[in-house]
Write a structure and sequence with these properties.
The protein is mostly helical and 192 residues long. The protein is 78% helix and 0% strand.
């Protein structure tokens, strides 16, 4: 495996790690940290620079178009600003031909997440109500970190707070990148 292939692989893994952290923070705080966006963007540019047959400038133009469109949607309240920036940063790591498939995969993952939130919100509210009714000796609150996290998400769902869309972005990046990382680590093929 060449040094360039290893660098591209590490950049892809860095993008996944930063996106995973963005998803965790988004679930906890409903914000996408700028550091994760910067790390994803820098790793994406590095990938494009290390891939000589795919120049960096078309990816930059594509990411700018994605950023402008999603920023307009964020300004209209349809989309989160941090999510728009994270998606544009992720687009930097893709060729211009792969930008639209990435966006479609993110949208699909977002649809799955929305379905989970619609169904999960109802189930968690019912479970929370049943748990509160059944608990006549205690305060009806869930015990343990997972129980508290589920209660918090149920309350957020009930309050119609925004979904943590960075989870969908991470899921799409994981779906897109995992086969390449596995192929590369198994030394079947590793694109520079």
């Amino acid at each position: 495996m060449s040094v360039i292939a290893v660098a591209v692989l590490l950049a892809r893994i860095t993008i996944l790690g930063a996106a995973a952290w963005a998803a965790v923070v988004d679930v906890r705080e409903r914000i996408v940290p700028y550091t994760t966006m910067a790390l994803v963007a820098a790793s994406g540019v590095l990938i494009r620079l290390l891939t000589p047959h795919d120049p960096v400038w078309p990816s930059v133009v594509g990411a700018l178009v994605v950023f402008v469109v999603l920023s307009l949607l964020a300004g209209a309240g349809v989309f989160g600003g941090g999510d728009a920036k994270l998606i544009a940063a992720a687009a930097l790591g893709e060729t211009i031909q792969d930008t639209l498939p990435l966006l479609l995969e993110i949208a699909l993952a977002g649809g799955v997440l929305a379905g989970i939130y619609l169904i999960g919100g109802r189930l968690l509210r019912r479970a929370s109500a049943a748990s509160a009714a059944a608990s006549s000796t205690g305060d009806g609150r869930a015990s343990g970190a997972l129980g508290r996290a589920l209660e918090l998400e149920a309350a957020r769902m009930g309050a119609r707070e925004p979904m943590p869309y960075a989870v969908a972005i991470f899921a799409a990046l994981l779906w897109r990148t995992t086969p390449e990382v596995v192929r590369c680590l198994s030394s079947v093929s590793c694109s520079p």
